[in-house]
Amino acid sequence: MIKEMRLKANAKINLGLDVLRKREDGYHDLRMIMQSISLHDVLELTLTRTPGIRIRTNLGFLPVNEDNLVHKAAALLFEEFGTEQGVFIDLKKNIPVAAGLAGGSSDAAAVLTGLNRMLDLKLTTEELMERGVRIGADVPFCILKGTALAEGIGEQLTVLPALPRCSILLVKPPVHVSTKYVYTHLRADELSEHPDIDGQIEALHTGDLACLSAKMGNVLETVTLPAHPVIGTIKDKLRSLGALNAMMSGSGPTVFGIFDDPQKAREAYSRLKSEGAYQVFLTEGINQ
User: Fold this and answer.
1) Which regions in the chain score pLDDT beneath 70?
2) Is 288 a member of any domain?
3) Is the same domain home to 265 and 130?
4) Catalytic residue at 90?
5) What is the structure's pLDDT at 203?
6) One of 12, 145, 215, 237 is an active-site residue; which one?
7) Under a CB-based contact definition with an 8 Å cutoff, are residues 87 and 49 in contact?
8) How far is 122 from 125, CA to CA, in rounded Å?
9) What CATH code is carried by the domain that includes residue 244?
10) Considering 41, 138, 196, 235, which one is annotated as catalytic?
11) Please, which residues have CB within 8 angstroms of residue 64's CB and are 6 or more apart in sequence?
12) Rg of the chain on CA atoms, in Å
């Protein structure tokens, strides 16, 4: 049995995000291409003789009780397997919170993956993903990592060829976007344009970064952009600084730009960082 483990929880972006319909259960049927990126949180897990789940974070406003997804993840496995031990989770957040980057889901995925190994539960990746969806729709992908087509509510995953090498610049404005608000106000049956997800999949198979970038699209922007025009401003700025294309990730507010020239990406990072108005991160895609 492993007593201590240090894990990385990688953020994700959506290279394409389409909503097909609103379901009778209130959820939406999605079709999107998800991509893990190198920006990550760090979790240190320590098994304890005393039962229970204790969490420490570097952000004072984060809950450290059952409202935190890492607590839900640990509790799910402890309850299922009747674990008598406890766990202390030290969570260092680097991924912006409520940013459309699946930080909380990735933290939960890391806890599931870590405890599976530490407690020798012998769950397969697929079995972990089945449990992960109970915590959140993005958790299965955060367990899988890499590049994948996500369907259903996001839990039906198909592994895709890796994203061609590129620099990814993340820019988060100081606005709060509620995922619930975005989906509540989305008119899925009235969308006139849909991203070419199939075209993006073909571009991944041929390794054509320019084609993939040209076909980027996120239908949730139809709700978020009118509410927060700064997102559109950032998209335009990233393109003007050399990005092949720029788009909002998830329900926002983070915007990312794809750069095929690392030097241009570094210059854009320095320029936006010096302005001081946004959180800015220079990152890249990671494979499975």
Assistant:
1) none
2) no
3) no
4) no
5) 98
6) 12
7) no
8) 9
9) 3.30.70.890
10) 138
11) 54, 55, 56, 57, 71
12) 19
